[in-house]
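Reply to thread "Modeling small-molecule complexes from scratch"

Following up on the discussion above, here's a worked example others can learn from. I took a protein sequence and the SMILES for flavin-adenine dinucleotide and predicted the complex. Inputs first:
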Amino acid sequence: MTDVTTPLPVDATTRIRRESERQVTERAALHAVLDEALVAHVGVVRDGLPLVLPFACARDGDTLLLHGSTGSGLMRLAAGEPVCVTVTHLDGLVYARTTFDSSMRYRSAVVHGTAEVVPPEEKERALTVLSDHLFCDRTAEVRASTVKELAATMVLRVSLERASVKVAAGPPEVDPDDVEPRSVWAGILPLSTVAGEPQPSPDVRDGVDVPPSVRRAADRLNAGGAPAPAR
Ligand SMILES: Cc1cc2nc3c(=O)[nH]c(=O)nc-3n(C[C@H](O)[C@H](O)[C@H](O)COP(=O)(O)OP(=O)(O)OC[C@H]3O[C@@H](n4cnc5c(N)ncnc54)[C@H](O)[C@@H]3O)c2cc1C
């Protein structure tokens, strides 16, 4: 297990060249970006062409977990192969005084690694980690997965050893030579993911309350975090 105090490597693959001051090398920053994520975009090469698909994700120590049907094309293709996994949090739109300078505020992470198939004896635990991250400890409220369900699911893990983090924050850039700065509004429109009111399925009996996992997920999302912190 990589020590969390070990900085992320900055090398030919992971070095951010443009706006390099936005590269963050603390491993804790990588964990924070991943722990807030529900979705990661997974990139592979299929038949010589790039393919990037969204997947649910959860951090498990110093690996990132992905799961899907054993019939999923990308899951089967990625197993044992190099992948590039990206997570993005869009924190705001930057309205600068020119469209050239307008941009976005974000935190993003790119993980480079090999997607390793989680062996059968570790699969149930990995799926619990995923479910409890995505659905805020839901596994305590529902039945355990069946042998058939476990067999139908493939879990991949990607080491977080080689990853990069980029954080764009702060006010818009100002070019004092362009227009008189204060005569045109500039600033940030903050963006975030929020939870709405829970909508029970039509077949839920009267008197069955919204469970704690749903309440916790909504509260955490509305407070600016992911439904549940990963392990
Ligand atoms: C929401 C969002 C919108 C963006 N929109 C634009 C845009 O419209 N135009 C634009 O030019 N750029 C945009 N970027 C930035 C873009 O992702 C790259 O960071 C940028 O193109 C500079 O790449 P580079 O040439 O320095 O690195 P590259 O040579 O392209 O990449 C080298 C390595 O740097 C790391 N890396 C690069 N970018 C990131 C990143 N964002 N997060 C984490 N690691 C990274 C990876 O490990 C990669 O392998 C956006 C980023 C985000 C998150």
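What I'd highlight from this example: The beta strands are 23-24, 39-46, 49-60, 63-69, 82-95, 103-117, 153-159, 163-168, 187-190. The radius of gyration is 20 Å. Questions welcome below.
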